[in-house]
Design a protein that fits this description.
Elements (H helix, E strand, L loop, with lengths): L1 H7 L3 H7 L3 H12 L9 H6 L2 H16 L2 H16 L1 H28 L9 H16 L7 H15 L4
Helix pairs in contact: 3-7, 5-9, 6-7, 8-9
Length: 164
């Protein structure tokens, strides 16, 4: 925290006024690396727009984001810290992952209401499958480029029922 305050040209109390601990600060810094990355739909959009349209509108941006070296490094570091720095993973989970999981759960529930996602789909498992598939792909030694990731995302979303 001292080094961060020094680089920012402020005192440590200034840092602590905004973040309670170093884990929260690091989680916030990681979030800024991918802020607005995949074009997440708002809850209002999920409640009123077609899930197909929302997913289709996000695919290009998501593919471009997850194929960057910066995103790949962030994912590797975050998941790699889960055991050695559980407080960091917990802060990142709370700040970044859970809000997006809630939106994804709402999107799946809306798609279920509209009949595109099966009634028996376990929402948590579906979210894990989507995230896990993308994470697995981007961490491969020869990760996909944007075009291949776009195709892959469409296939993943189609399997869940979020695309026709």
């Amino acid at each position: 925290m001292e080094q961060i305050a020094k680089k920012a040209g402020v005192g440590k109390p200034t840092i602590y006024r905004r973040w309670a601990n170093k884990e929260e600060l690091i989680a916030a810094a990681m979030e800024t690396l991918v802020a607005g990355e995949a074009g997440w739909a708002s809850q209002e959009a999920i409640d009123t727009e077609s899930p197909y349209a929302l997913v289709e509108a996000a695919i290009d941006r998501a593919a471009a984001t997850v194929t960057t070296d910066q995103y790949r490094a962030l994912v590797a570091r975050v998941f790699g810290s889960a055991v050695s720095h559980p407080q960091l993973m917990a802060a990142y989970w709370e700040r970044y992952i859970l809000p997006r999981r809630r939106l994804a759960a709402s999107l799946l529930a809306r798609a279920r209401e509209l009949g595109t996602v099966s009634d028996d789909v376990d929402v948590d498992v579906a979210i894990d499958m989507m995230v896990g598939a993308v994470t697995y792909r981007v961490l491969q030694p020869d990760p996909p480029g944007v075009d291949e990731m776009r195709r892959y995302l469409r296939a993943v979303y189609r399997q869940i029922g979020l695309l026709p």
